[in-house]
Amino acid sequence: MNVGICYSRIRRDEKLLLSELRDRGHEIEKIDVRKQTFSLSEPPEAFADVDVLVDRCLATSRSLYTTRFAEAYGIPIVNSAETAAICANKVRNSLALERAGVPTPATDVAFTKESAMDIVERFGYPCVLKPVIGSWGRLMAKLDSESAAEAIFEHKETLGHYEHKVFYIQEFVDKPGRDIRVVALDGEPVGAMVRKSDHWLTNAAKGAETEEFELDDEARELVAEASAAVGGGLLGVDLMETGEPQGSQSSGQDARESGYTVHEVNHNVEFKALNEAADVDVPAAVVDWLEDTVAGVES
Amino acid sequence: MADTVTAEDPITGEEIEVPADVEVGEIIDSPVTGAELEVISVDPVELEEAPELEEDWGE
Ligand SMILES: Nc1ncnc2c1ncn2[C@@H]1O[C@H](COP(=O)(O)OP(=O)(O)OP(=O)(O)O)[C@@H](O)[C@H]1O
């Protein structure tokens, strides 16, 4: 098959993927999206011969538009534009999880610092403020006190780009010093790892330690549901352990009993850390899945 | 030690060694300045200063 890799930076992840594709004798079109122009009706020349495009744009804005254009031209792209749109935005991500009945941390949104303070007072301290767009744990704030919360909201209101004036506030989940990253293909886990740190942020990009993690049935079920909630594809599903033994949660009437909460799904998942931490070959699994996807499109 | 080739560091102009299997689009750290450099062509390897991190980058 001919696979078009849309990128603006070849990370270790893309390199692994490229070398797996080459080893299997597939044709590859490396498409640097910075060099493309997109018309409303005609695909760029680089898209002409591909059977499938893989969106690996590091810049979320480019990922959002590249996937939209590919779909407008009728060229299959993974992940889909809709999946990118949901995953790129924490509000949409949370709404999709909630709607699908997947346990996710309690989250409220406000547009002014006064309303944001109302939320914080309801949640109590500590709670978490996240930028609606962004990744790698950047610009995340743990709000420990009223004075800190007020100061952060004021800074954001005064200094922030308009997306930072959307205050996304989340209950603090007292996780056991780690969270869980699952790489999944259409909801089927390829592998999972925990990311451990003394810091409350346990992103691999922040230097957390990683270790393979064995998923139980409940976690697998949540991964499948979280994946479906955002439209499936090659995804990174992030979960935290809530410390509630299964079946013992007794909050709202329709609150689901779960030992996990899913805080987000990533559409441009970095898998090099998992590939190293776990006894799995992520690029091989991804290419298997791409081969099946293309066979499905062609038949 | 993996194979290396030489290329010119775009910031200092010095000859530096880079892995022979670099790809166009890949980022390497300059052994001279530590700055991120983007591979803009291979054979011969040409390097440019890599773009700075933007707020919307990530997973
Ligand atoms: N509500 C919460 N309570 C406690 N810890 C949290 C909460 N939300 C996130 N964290 C911690 O912060 C880290 C970053 O959170 P999150 O995944 O939401 O940010 P991100 O910037 O989108 O990261 P990435 O996109 O790289 O996964 C998580 O790995 C987790 O350890």
From TrEMBL, chain A:
InterPro entries associated with the record: ATP-grasp, ATP-grasp_RimK-type, ATP_grasp_subdomain_1, LysX/ArgX_preATP_grasp, LysX_arch, PreATP-grasp_dom_sf, Rp_bS6_RimK/Lys_biosynth_LsyX
Keywords assigned: Amino-acid biosynthesis, ATP-binding, Ligase, Magnesium, Metal-binding, Nucleotide-binding
Required cofactor(s): Mg(2+)
Pathway: Amino-acid biosynthesis
This protein's GO CC annotations: cytoplasm
GO BP of this protein: lysine biosynthetic process
Domain ATP-grasp, residue spans: 94-291
Annotated coiled-coil segments of the chain: none
UniProt GO molecular function: ATP binding; coenzyme F420-2 alpha-glutamyl ligase activity; metal ion binding
Keyword Chaperone set for record: no
PANTHER family in alphabetical order: COENZYME GAMMA-F420-2:ALPHA-L-GLUTAMATE LIGASE (PTHR21621:SF2), RIBOSOMAL PROTEIN S6 MODIFICATION PROTEIN (PTHR21621)
Protein name: Lysine biosynthesis protein LysX
Organism lineage string: Archaea, Methanobacteriati, Methanobacteriota, Stenosarchaea group, Halobacteria
TrEMBL record, chain B:
Superkingdom to which the source organism belongs: Archaea
InterPro entries given in the database record: LysW (IPR005906)
Gene3D superfamilies: 2.20.28.160
One of the Pfam families matching this protein, by short name: Zn_ribbon_LysW
NCBIfam families in the record: lysW (TIGR01206)
Name of this chain's protein: Lysine biosynthesis protein LysW
